[in-house]
Structures are given as structure tokens and as C-alpha cells.
């Protein structure tokens, strides 16, 4: 059994998987990774199931010591990643897979854009399951942020390939988010629904795994006549609730399960990662579409996720920028005799893939 130990963790750094569906009646939303696309990209890089748990960093920092050699992948919002200790100090390319030698320390700090970054391990993280998932659900009090000294077990890694990079699906720079009408959209006057699609909102700095505030950037707020007197009812991730001061909030993975603020629209699940990953201040525009069109978009998105391997290629490195050039296996069949675990027998590099 392979184990990684948390040397230090700051901010909201949690274990996440695809969440626990089916518990809304018990008051628990699905939760899971804020950016499911990043989970799928990490799984594609490592050639494993996208349901395996990984570590999510919400603009946090993390240091982990690996007890044994292991494969990792880095996805989501680009952060600064570095390998220290065994194998020497070197930077780790984001959106890529790497081999980490036994005893090495992985260090990750936030990048300039913020957002959610992900650290995946070959075999996934086998933390304790609760209600069918390993995800921490902070709003429900299930699990919590990683703590110094905590040890995480890794599952059996059945894969072998490293040194790959993926061209991520576009979602990290804001832009248009597509939405459909909610049950309460028609409570709003038509001119307000039209204006919803004309305003360029700014991603507010107030946001977490429960919801993201959309800054009106000086525009007039929204209000449904009598909207503050409606009964509370079920809500879901993607719903855009409008608070009493007219500000829209997009509900995210760990949102509450009922709410009384009226919902002006619901963002498509495939576009929620755009909201999650938009850096504060980034422009976001809402476009309402018909439900049939939304279904076709979701089908196309599922096809894109199924074809992620087509976006993967070998990682190219410039020898002039490799401070530890001599630590790499530059000649096929030659290994580092001082650190034989640096290149385990089972590990394959891209040029060996047929």
C-alpha cells in the first residue's frame, strides 16, 4: 500500500471525487469536485477511472511527501508545482503527468489566476467512504480540509504511462455561460430576462464551493414582483438565485438543497466549471437557450469528455531549461543506479506507446 503524507496544507485543500448523488431528500447536495472536467482530464492523463478521488486546491497551497514512487497528474486552474527532495528540485508542468520518486515532496502554491487546481494520483486516493463517496462536503460537515501530518492511502495503480500533457477543454478564462429557464424565470418581467443576457457580469471575489456572486459592475439589480414571498423549494447546482438586493448568485457543487430566493435561470452543468474557474473580475455573460438545444449541448459535451485522449500528447521539454538534465533517462535502457526506483520497471514514457 502506498501512502502520501501531508507536510503542510493551507486554505481549502480537500479530497474530492464525483460526489454523492441521491441524497437531496436528506438535505445533502451532490458536492464533489467544483470542476468535473478537470477530474476527467486527470483521469485521461493517468488512464484510469474519472470517479477516483483526487486533491482539490481552492487557491490553497500544499506540500505532500510520497512514501513510494507514484504517478501524478496536475489539472484545472494552473498553479505553481515543484518537486523537492529525492530526484532533485524541479518544476512540474501543469496539465501534465509526472513520475514522482519515493521520498520526494510535491509542493503546490496558487497561480496568478486563482481557481480550482487538482492533484491526481495513479490509483486514486482511498480515503474513507461515506454515503458512497470520498468527497469532503464542507457545507454538510462531511470530512474537512487536509491537515498537517494526515496520511492518505493510494489505490493500486494499474497504469504505467507518464510525461504526457493535455490540451484542456476551454473554461479557464470566463466568457459566455449558457443557461435555461428555471421554474421561476417567468416571475421576472421580460425586459429583466432580456437585460440578464445583456449585462457583462464580473466574477466577484466572494465565492466558494457553495456559490459564486456575480458583480453587476454598476448595472441595475434584478427583482421579481412578489419574488421575496415565494415558498422555499428545491434548488440545485447551476441555479441563479437573485438575493434581496438584486444580485445574482450561481449555486455551485455544495449548494444548499432548498432556497427561497427566486431563480432567474439555471446554468448548464457543462458550463458550471467556467463559473468555478473564472478569476475574480473576469467577465461572464449569460445566454438563455431552449431546452432541446441544451440537451444537444450536453450530449456534445459528453462526447468531448469521452474523447479527451485525443487532446493528449507527449510532454516536450527544452534541455536548455532543465537544471537537472543529468537526472533524466536520456538514453533508452540506462537507469540511475544510485536511485533505481526513479525509473520503476512498470513506468512507460510516451515514445513507448503504440
**N-to-C span:** 30 Å
- How do the SSEs run, as a string of H and E? EHEEEEEEEEEEHEEEEEEEHEHE
Please report the total strand number as a whole number.
Answer: 20
Largest β-sheet summary: 9 strands, antiparallel
Rough outline: elongated
Strand content: 25-35%
Kindly state the mean pLDDT as a whole number? Answer: 90
Point out poorly predicted stretches: 337-346
Q: How many H/I helices?
A: 4
Cα gyration radius (Å): 22 Å
Helix content: 10-25%
**What is the SS-derived class?**
mainly beta
Can you describe this structure?
This protein has 354 residues and is mainly beta. It has 4 helices and 20 strands. Strands 1, 2, 3, 4, 5, 6, 7, 8 and 9 form a 9-stranded antiparallel sheet that branches. It is elongated.
Fold topology:
Blueprint: E1 2-16, H1 36-46, E2 54-66, E3 70-76, E4 80-84, E5 90-91, E6 96-100, E7 105-109, E8 116-121, E9 151-154, E10 164-166, E11 175-180, H2 190-196, E12 201-207, E13 211-215, E14 233-234, E15 239-242, E16 248-251, E17 258-259, E18 263-267, H3 272-277, E19 283-288, H4 291-306, E20 312-314
Parallel strand pairs: 11-19
Antiparallel strand pairs: 1-2, 1-9, 2-7, 2-8, 3-6, 3-8, 4-5, 4-7, 10-20, 11-18, 12-13, 12-19, 13-16, 14-17, 15-16, 15-18
Amino acid at each position: 500500500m502506498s501512502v502520501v503524507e501531508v507536510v503542510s496544507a493551507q486554505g481549502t485543500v480537500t479530497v474530492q471525487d464525483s460526489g454523492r448523488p441521491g441524497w437531496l431528500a436528506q438535505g445533502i447536495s451532490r458536492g464533489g469536485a467544483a470542476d468535473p472536467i478537470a477530474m476527467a482530464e486527470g483521469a485521461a492523463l493517468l488512464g484510469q477511472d474519472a470517479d477516483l478521488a483526487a486533491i482539490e486546491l481552492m487557491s490553497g497551497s500544499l506540500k505532500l511527501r510520497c512514501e513510494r514512487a507514484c504517478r501524478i497528474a496536475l489539472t484545472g486552474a494552473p498553479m505553481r508545482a515543484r518537486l523537492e527532495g529525492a530526484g532533485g528540485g524541479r518544476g512540474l508542468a501543469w496539465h501534465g503527468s509526472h513520475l514522482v520518486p519515493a521520498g520526494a515532496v510535491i509542493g503546490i502554491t496558487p497561480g496568478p489566476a486563482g481557481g480550482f487546481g487538482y492533484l491526481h494520483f495513479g490509483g486514486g486516493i482511498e480515503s474513507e467512504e461515506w454515503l458512497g463517496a470520498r468527497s469532503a462536503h464542507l457545507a454538510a460537515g462531511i470530512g474537512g480540509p487536509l491537515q498537517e501530518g494526515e496520511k492518505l492511502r493510494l489505490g493500486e495503480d494499474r497504469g504505467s504511462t507518464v510525461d504526457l500533457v493535455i490540451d484542456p477543454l476551454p473554461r479557464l478564462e470566463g466568457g459566455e455561460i449558457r443557461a435555461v429557464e428555471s421554474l421561476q424565470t417567468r416571475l421576472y418581467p421580460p425586459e429583466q430576462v432580456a437585460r440578464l443576457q445583456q449585462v457583462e457580469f464580473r466574477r466577484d471575489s466572494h465565492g466558494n464551493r457553495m456559490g459564486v456572486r456575480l458583480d453587476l459592475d454598476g448595472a441595475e439589480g434584478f427583482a421579481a414582483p412578489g419574488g421575496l414571498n415565494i415558498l422555499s423549494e428545491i434548488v440545485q447546482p447551476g441555479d441563479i438565485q437573485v438575493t434581496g438586493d438584486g444580485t445574482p448568485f450561481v449555486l455551485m457543487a455544495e449548494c444548499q438543497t432548498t432556497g427561497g430566493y427566486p431563480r432567474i435561470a439555471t446554468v448548464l452543468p457543462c458550463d458550471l466549471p467556467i463559473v468555478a474557474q473564472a478569476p475574480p473580475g473576469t467577465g461572464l455573460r449569460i445566454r438563455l437557450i431552449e431546452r432541446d438545444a441544451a440537451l444537444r449541448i450536453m450530449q456534445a459535451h459528453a462526447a468531448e469528455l469521452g474523447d479527451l485522449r485525443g487532446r493528449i500528447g507527449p510532454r516536450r521539454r527544452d534541455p536548455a531549461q532543465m537544471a537537472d538534465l543529468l537526472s533524466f533517462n536520456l538514453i533508452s535502457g540506462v537507469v540511475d543506479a544510485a536511485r533505481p526506483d526513479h525509473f520503476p520497471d512498470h513506468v512507460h514514457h510516451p515514445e513507448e506507446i503504440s
